[in-house]
UniProtKB/TrEMBL annotation:
Source organism (scientific name): Pusillibacter faecalis
Domain of life, per lineage: Bacteria
Taxon lineage: Bacteria, Bacillati, Bacillota, Clostridia, Eubacteriales
Membrane listed as a keyword: yes
Transmembrane helix listed as a keyword: yes
Keywords: Membrane, Transmembrane, Transmembrane helix
Protein name: DUF2975 domain-containing protein
InterPro entries: DUF2975
């Protein structure tokens, strides 16, 4: 592939990562709203809670006001502390959301160096190392949530949830980022040595 085609791909990926980062930050703000809505309505899914909240915001009834919905979304950050299961779910989703935002930001930084034509820099090695730390944090948070749910519900059902799936996926992602970080660091050192010999 030519350098220009790689930069075109990097430009498209940069835009997609930026869109994903913005969506992640919006959803991160709505996490307590989804948990509180799910608990209040008795539904069994976060998407149902978010859909109910957004339906109320975008299609207000006679007594509903958009400002009241916005205020309720802010107050939801204080309501989820009342129930242990809600607290566990909200904290897990917030920690995972923050780590995901950091991973996306680090990916954006790596793509920026590719767009500048400097892919083998120490900056990329540091960015990938930060992404690895965040991946391991998500894996540990998922493992803690699975262990907590095994104890709290006294059932094996938490072993068959997305939390149990997150543990190996994000652990492998963290290891992959660490390997890529070491490769980028080694390539940056070799490039610096070659620049000094010329």
């Amino acid at each position: 592939m030519k350098a220009m085609s790689i930069q075109k791909i990097a430009r498209v990926l940069h835009a997609l990562v930026l869109i994903a980062l913005i969506c992640n930050l919006v959803i991160l703000y709505l996490v307590p709203v989804a948990v509180v809505s799910m608990e209040a309505s008795g539904s069994h899914g976060l998407l149902a809670g978010v859909a109910e909240y957004l339906g109320d915001i975008f299609h207000p009834g006679e007594d509903d006001i958009i400002a009241a919905g916005a205020a309720a979304s802010f107050l939801a950050w204080f309501w989820f502390w009342q129930d242990t299961a809600s607290l566990s779910l909200t904290l897990f989703l917030v920690v995972s959301g923050i780590c995901t935002a950091v991973i996306l930001w680090q990916g954006r930084r790596v793509l920026q160096t590719i767009l500048r034509g400097e892919p083998f820099s120490m900056e990329n090695a540091h960015s990938l190392r930060r992404a690895a730390i965040c991946s391991f944090t998500i894996a540990l948070a998922a493992l803690a949530r699975v262990a907590f749910n095994l104890w709290f519900f006294r059932s094996l059902a938490p072993l068959f949830t997305y939390n149990a799936l997150f543990v190996p996926i994000f652990a492998m992602a963290g290891l992959l980022c660490l390997v890529m970080s070491a490769l980028f660091r080694q390539a940056a050192e070799m490039k610096a040595e070659n620049d000094l010999t010329i």
